[in-house]
Specification:
Elements lengths: L3 E2 L5 E2 L2 H8 L13 H10 L5 H9 L4 E5 L15 H9 L2 H15 L1 E8 L5 E6 L4 E6 L2 E13 L6 E6 L3 E7 L17 E2 L9 E3 L7 E5 L16 H20 L5 E4 L32 E4 L6 H18 L3 H5 L7 H7 L1 H29 L2 H4 L5 E4 L7 H13 L4 H7 L4 H25 L6 H9 L4 E3 L5 E3 L1
Antiparallel strand pairs: 1-2, 3-15, 4-5, 4-12, 6-7, 7-8, 8-9, 9-10, 9-11, 13-14, 16-17
């Protein structure tokens, strides 16, 4: 949890440090000539948290619309629809609202976990777990398979600390009243830990019905570090630089922006009791300074130029935007006479980053849903490795752009359902529109039949029948219209 130094002497931030930066509680820098004890309050106010924006900007564009578990069909209008049972599990676990917990947790804490368990009603229960409470051990030589998983947490009802250890074969439950927690790998027994008795397992262990560790890791930026790399981890030093520049700016405003006055050739009286010099004048906009001595001169010092401090902050913010691929207008907030194409180009890096995270987290969501289907007893979906997570398009598009693209895709014979997904309709909306389309088609056919003149005689009926196309078989065996 705490920071530690690597072999090169560099300090690697711990989970607590990453959390503090994300919550605008970065450490206060040391400013020469400023006593932190006297200036702590306004130094806290001087911090501006850009790291939270680095995390929030991709999270707000990562929205799961559903899952596909069926293989693509040859139906022109029904190419692999969203899975209704997967959507039911998603809604039962309120993941429309809570999915962001997994995404934000992974981006801000390097990794997050989904715990999939069987509920009291036999349905799957999916919960978000943090790396501050959960640790996993991967199978040797396989980063996708888990050999064990451990969750350590404080029981709010009893005040005890509990632990659950999952292996593919069995589940072990422990409890302790110790305040200082430790697991010693060298000890022959777990000192200070007792088996936690459950109604189904009085000795603290029970068989694992799932035959697998029910934890799914959501690891962010695994290409940077195999255990995960936080979204704001490589801009922490830039955030420190920004905080220092802002504190210097406020210190200059507080102590150097006011024009200091001076007087030369002025005799200053002393306090007869303390012997201290008596302030001859009071700084007041309504007061006029005068002196009876014609040799007295008055003047003022120039105020401190604040532009270098502002420029330093702007330069650091630009560095942060470039490294984190956060659009500059997100950070600066000034958009004047900028075209839509320019804004889209500025967001290209962010969109590319979000799609990269979607590919990684999509695999985790698919594994989570496969575990959920294993609980429901649906072995076909539990082994459906062709499953696909349906993500909402992270790119900002206007309604007219989406409609124009849909018309062009229809001309290119893109299936109707795919066009609706590209227009950002959810699976539930698409299913409702399919019902409406079928109803409209039936009503249109009924109206067309009502408008068709009915035959008034037997000869007219025979003539109408003879005009219908007849399907026969051609010389090559294929169907042909006669």
């Amino acid at each position: 949890m705490d920071d530690h130094r690597d072999t090169d002497g560099e300090t690697e931030p711990g989970l607590e440090t990453l959390r503090r930066y994300a919550e605008n509680r970065a450490p206060l820098p040391t400013v020469p000539g400023v006593d932190p004890n006297e200036a702590r309050e306004w130094m806290r106010d001087a911090r501006t948290n850009w790291t939270s924006l680095v995390i929030d900007s991709p999270v707000e564009r990562m929205h799961v619309d559903g899952f596909r578990f069926g293989k693509p069909t040859d139906d022109k209008d029904g190419a692999s629809a969203s899975d209704d049972e997967a959507n039911r599990i998603w809604q039962e676990n309120a993941l429309d609202a809570d999915a962001d917990l997994f995404h934000y947790g992974a981006l801000s804490q390097r990794r997050a976990f989904a715990l999939v368990e069987r509920g009291d009603d036999g349905r799957p229960v999916i919960t978000h777990e943090t790396p501050r409470q959960v640790a996993v051990e991967h199978a040797q030589g396989n980063r996708r398979e888990l050999a064990a998983g451990l969750k350590l947490w404080r029981d709010d009802w009893t005040g005890d600390t509990r632990a659950t250890l999952w292996t593919p074969a069995r589940i072990y439950d422990f409890v302790t009243k110790a305040q200082t927690l430790s697991f010693s790998g060298r000890a022959a027994s777990l000192r200070g830990w007792d088996a936690y008795a459950l109604p189904s397992a009085t000795d603290g262990n029970r068989p694992n019905d799932l035959k697998t560790v029910p934890l799914v890791p959501f690891i962010n930026r695994r290409n940077r570090r195999i255990s995960g790399f936080a979204e704001h981890e490589d801009v922490l030093t830039i955030q420190n630089r920004i905080n220092l520049s802002l504190i210097n700016l406020i210190a200059a405003m507080k102590y150097g922006a006011f024009r200091q006055r001076w007087a030369a050739g002025l005799e200053v009286d002393e306090d007869p009791i303390t012997g201290q010099k008596i302030q001859p004048y009071k700084l007041d906009i309504k007061s006029l300074w005068t002196s009876g001595d014609p040799d007295t001169n008055f003047g003022e010092f120039a105020a401190t130029d604040l532009k270098p401090y502002v420029s330093a902050v702007q330069a650091a913010v630009q560095d942060l935007a470039a490294i984190s691929r956060t659009p500059p207008h997100y950070l600066i907030g000034a958009v004047v006479n900028v075209s839509g194409d320019a804004l889209k180009a500025a967001e290209t890096g962010l969109v590319s980053k979000v799609r990269d995270r979607q590919r990684t987290f999509g695999e985790s969501w698919e594994q989570t849903m496969r575990l959920a289907f294993r609980i429901t007893g649906d072995e076909a979906r539990a082994k459906a490795y062709h499953a696909e997570t349906i993500w909402r398009d992270p790119e900002s598009r206007s309604i007219s752009e989406l409609a124009d693209a849909a018309v062009k895709k229809k001309a290119a014979d893109v299936p109707w359902r795919q066009r609706m997904e590209d227009m950002l309709y959810t699976p539930t909306q698409i299913a409702r529109m399919e019902v409406d389309r079928a109803a409209d088609a039936i009503n249109a056919q009924a109206a067309a039949d009502a408008a068709t003149p009915q035959p008034t005689s037997l000869n007219d009926a025979r003539a109408a029948r003879d005009q219908r196309p007849v399907i026969g078989r051609g010389d090559q065996g294929g169907p042909v219209a006669a």
